[in-house]
Input
Amino acid sequence: MTTRQLTTEPTTTTLTKFVDPLPIPKRLRADPADPLPSFTIRTVAAELRLHTQLPPTALWTYGGDFPGPVLDVHRDQRIRVTWTNEVTTPYPAVNAYLADAPGNPSLAMNDPGIGAAQPVPGTTGLPAWLDTHLHGAVTGGGNDGWMENALLTGDSQLAEYPNRQPAMTLWYHDHAMNITSLNVFAGLVGMYLLRDEEEDKLGLPDGEHEIPLIVCDRNLATDANGALTGQLLHKTTGTLPFLGPYTLVNGRIWPYLEVRPGWYRFRLLNASNSRTYRLHLLDEKDNQVTAGAVWQIGTDSGLLGAPLPVGSAGLTLAPAERADVLVDFGAFRGSSLRLVNSAQAPFRGDPLPPGVKPGDPLPADRLPEPDVMQFRVRAERLHDLVPLLRELEPGKSGEERDTVASGHGFRLPETLSPSYYRLTEQRLPADPVQRVLGLAADPDGTLGLWELQEVPATEAPTAPGQVLDGIIQVTGPTGVTTTYQRVARHFDDQLNWRARMDEWEVWQILNLSGILHPIHIHLIRFQPLSIDAYDTGEFDAALGGTATGKPVAHLAALPIDPSLTGWKDVMRIPPGTSVTVAGQFRGAAGRYMYHCHILEHEDAGMMRQFAVMPGAVMDVGRGMGGGMGGGMGGGMSGGTGITSTTGTTGMGSM
Output
């Protein structure tokens, strides 16, 4: 396929919305009678239509489909997956770099005034070097998809997943070093559903009433006549990662789904490289947000304790976040509903501007097309569609038969997961290992993960106004100022953090940059303990630190959104905030990664490594006895660290 200068994309889409039915990914189910079910999933090149009005698009896929098949397994059922690389074609997308234009008021992806985009040298000749990571899995380091152990064509990656985890929505994607953003963009994503008895007892909508919704954004190249070629266009700028104008759900641009007027369960995944979605369901009769129809029942890593209504503020999903959602279409017979995105980009958590409603385009904020997909609710009463129900329930009224037919009599339960508990400082063991992490721009403009260690007061720099690279001072909520020294920031720096198996850790993450970062920690699930606002204006990115006596200062404790109180493996860290999370490193050991899940940031250096080891092994080693840097102490969390009044009661339910 050929393209002309990449700035000649149409300023508005030429594609018609809601003409393609939503594809439903294939399912691979594990036989419960098989002691070790085995699957082979081949990564192959394929040409698939992303929209009826487009030519076929070249992709790299799992099993020939985009997205790949849904793996559907049960808790404690170990499975073996062979990921076989059979890709023989060159990287299928145009990878282009668009230089910054400081004087341009708009950075919308289709703005022709920004300037000519230039193809990135070398990417057209990239080999199919692939590596699959099961995101959110508790599995040994050798099965986790270490990014430098990627495969060339003809090789296979053998992985075993014990599935000793509660019911949750996982997903798998490519994780190859330096090129994760490109390989995922090319199509290498898929969903993985894990079930357990606790979930089974709820009688949630299933079968055709349980539907994966894998959402992502893409851009498309054009030919010499300005027509869309179907070829993917990965266009970025010098400071911003990829953001595309076309939204895909399950591999189709702006699809529709015909539903019955009853309950549905949607397994939502944001599989975008960098775009955050704030989702709203609009009734097309009046373009108003629906009330009382949408309920969140789960987060990244499991069910909530009770259903959470999704109100007018919408449901926010940063890259790699998942949400388990129930929607009751019973009140919308004969209506059409639109799922829309209202998140400005780059997303910082800001509300919509005054006068702007969900569904309004925001081209100046890189959201030229807010539509995601359409739901078409059938007009018929369900009991008229199910004659058998009349024979089985002859004494039921029409309304009662409707209820039974729409989701098998499903009623929204008051309690979802009896094993769920809200993690608090009091539920942690005494003196957990504490880590301190900064998200900051380096003097050269690249982003890093700053592992920080407290500096004793006797060793802290004292010269008034002095700024030293890697030295920052932080004043916490108690007014105590602590000095920290950066001990690592990029992937190849020294390994500092070794966790003991089964030990609880508290990570305090301070965002010194100007944008939101979704931070993913491999292996574990966690919950936020606190979110605090900080004045980061004194942090000097050009010099890499703060001046003595001019610390980053605590402003206020912030409320934690209820949608973030479930078990997570991705945490949004807004700019100017410190988010404290806690989790237990249990179930597996090895070397793992934590990183920003904006994939262009990950590839550019926002990724670090850590190791998990049995405690007895650490005890016989030298210099492996504990965590780096102690805690934030008075610097950020206030007080002398986190203590416990209840010990570890109930911790086994993780």
Remarks:
- The chain is about 5% helix and 35% strand.
- Helices lie at 180-185, 197-200, 382-385, 387-392, 398-405, 599-603, 615-620.
